[in-house]
């Protein structure tokens, strides 16, 4: 079993290290991650310039690969033959939850999607860390959850075209309510435009605002986290709205 571990926070991110250390219990692990933070990068693939790959060392002394490409590039390169064949790709551990509409922005989730596009199983793992948390985060529970989900995938497989999006409450393992299969919930954003002037009087802008929340509905990723459950959401790459197709087919073209 050869498992690729990646992320969107950069190769030296503590969540990546915690994930790699736990996943090594399942088999051979190759770590391949970006050389910088690509958070909220979405699904990016680099086609307009060459990609540079370097070997590096993680904080525990183990070897890893890093690239100046996006998270999806760090999955595509191994799957295209830069390493031995990969059986599963696990992306994370992201320091914040990826729920609701977050998945369209998330480099963590879209790195796992890149695997599924090429026919390899993909899992994304995120930690629902508390707002305003100071100091180092504890990724141990999320890492254990990632291993348990990966064990389940290895044993039972996944339907074709499915990406597993895992979100883990910020709790000790023995404090978890359990594991719940969930649907994508509704994220509530409170973005605001912050307009400023540089020293030369020219305007520039920040997209800011309050921390996003969500709609607490039973059976959703947000609702599960609120109740202390690990949220496991099966995502699909087919974004077609089939109900809308039936409506649009009634349009009359003149």
Model description:
With 254 residues, this protein is an alpha/beta fold. It has a single domain, classed as Survival protein SurE-like phosphatase/nucleotidase (Stationary-phase Survival Protein Sure Homolog, Chain: A). Helices cover 26% and strands 31% of the residues. The protein contains seven helices and eleven strands. The protein has a nine-stranded mixed sheet with strand order 3-4-2-1-5-6-7-11-8, with helices on both faces. A two-stranded antiparallel sheet has the order 9-10. Strand 1, helix 1 and strand 2 form a beta-alpha-beta unit. Helix 1 crosses helix 5 and helix 2 runs parallel beside helix 4. The radius of gyration is 19 Å and the shape is globular. The relative contact order is 0.15.
List keywords for this structure.
single chain, 254 residues, alpha/beta, Stationary-phase Survival Protein Sure Homolog, Chain: A, 9-stranded mixed β-sheet, two-stranded antiparallel sheet, 11 strands, 26% helix
Summarize the structure.
About 25% of the residues lie in helices and about 30% in strands. It has helices spanning about 15-25, 70-80, 100-105, 105-115, 140-155, 220-225, 240-250; strands at about 1-5, 30-35, 55, 65, 90-95, 120-130, 160-170, 180, 185-195, 205-215, 230-235.
